[in-house]
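Model it.
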Amino acid sequence: MLFRVTVPTFVVMDLLGRLGAIEAIGRVCAPVMSLFRLPGEAAIVVLLAFLVNVYSAAAALGSLGATVGQVMTLGLMIGMAHALVVETIVLKTAGARAGRLLLYRLAMSVLVGWAASHLFIDVPR
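Modeled.
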């Protein structure tokens, strides 16, 4: 399972990097990601974690060259909200208020990410 997710993610990230798409995505997402003191390119990692799973996000993170503080911030954000599509379906099937839990997880990810970015700003590489 892990191999089926990480290898294609590495290949796609390499291809996007060669095409200049990662930099373009970074420029577009930079204003939002700056709230977390992250480069705009980190939006790719967050979206992969939210929509696919943690493993795809980890594979993409490897190509960003992030600092320790940035990795810690991203890790906490991803820990709060990951695989949202699959897990929301499971929660709904189990009878939980899936929409409310989805919003709660996203809000916690944003809140914890913002707080972590201020705590881990000076963590050395």
